[in-house]
Write a structure and sequence with these properties.
Order of helices and strands: HHHHEEHEE
Strand content: 5-15%
CATH class of the largest domain: Mainly Alpha
Number of helices: 5
CATH topology of the largest domain: Helix Hairpins
Number of domains: 2
Radius of gyration: 42 Å
Shape: rod-shaped
Length: about 250
């Protein structure tokens, strides 16, 4: 393949822009905010699960407390009725009086036991409420950090994307001045060779693979016409000659 030396030099310009685009793409993928958001989001999800569990526990104990208080109230009402009967003098049979007094005493013990249950449930409910309040604060704090990290990430991505757009336009302008067959070969080699399709021959060394050319290869390059597109024998990339090639 033949191409004017100026076209080959411009190929190095395209290569430089392609390297920059690769660097920008890598920078975009590896922004520290990505890892930060992954960590924050995982922590947020875990805390949200704990918060839901605490809220569920608080709700369950609230219902349990209501039921226990209703049980106490029922026993209290029944005891009040029995005490009223006892105080009214309507019960005159000694056996009935004994039974009624025994029932009142039993209800008093039952009421005391149920009130202890209410207190125990109230303590558990209060603990669940405190835990939910604490977790709510932590979730809100994490959400604030997530919002901040998201804003920083979006700003960084926007800045990178703007630079990518600028470099892409510049590449398109320069690539448009390079013969299509040369550019096609370059793009093919760039895909095969890890993003580098053309390399400068500098001080008898290929800038692509960093290998110094053998004397026979150097002689071939020296003797090749200026418009000949030469290739590195080692990496097969397009080898662009410049005044600094050491030929």
């Amino acid at each position: 393949m033949n191409a004017a030396p100026a076209d080959q030099i411009r190929l190095l310009d395209v290569q430089g822009l392609d390297v920059r685009l690769s660097q920008l793409a890598h920078k975009r993928r590896t922004l520290p905010e990505h890892a930060e958001l992954d960590t924050l989001t995982a922590d947020h999800t875990q805390l949200r699960d704990l918060l839901v569990a605490s809220q569920t526990e608080e709700s369950d104990t609230a219902r349990e407390q209501t039921k226990a208080e209703q049980d106490v109230d029922q026993v209290r009402q029944r005891a009040a009725r029995d005490q009223k009967r006892l105080d009214s003098g309507a019960v005159t049979s000694p056996k009935d009086l004994e039974n009624l007094q025994h029932e009142i005493a039993s209800l008093a013990r039952r009421q005391s036991d149920l009130e202890d249950v209410v207190l125990e449930v109230m303590e558990r409910r209060e603990a669940a409420q405190e835990r939910a309040t604490e977790l709510t604060g932590r979730v809100e704090s994490l959400q604030s950090k997530i919002s901040d990290a998201t804003a920083r990430r979006d700003a960084a991505v926007e800045e990178i994307d703007n630079e990518i757009a600028t470099v892409t336009k510049e590449r398109a302008v320069i690539a448009g001045t390079i013969p299509a067959d040369l550019l096609k070969l370059y793009d093919k080699l760039r895909e095969q060779q890890g993003g580098v399709g053309a390399a400068r021959l500098y001080q008898r060394r290929c800038d692509g693979c960093r290998q110094e050319l053998a004397i026979t290869e150097l002689n071939e390059v020296r003797s090749a016409p200026a418009d000949t597109v030469v290739r590195c024998e080692n990496c097969r990339r397009i080898l662009v000659r410049t005044p600094e090639s050491g030929l």
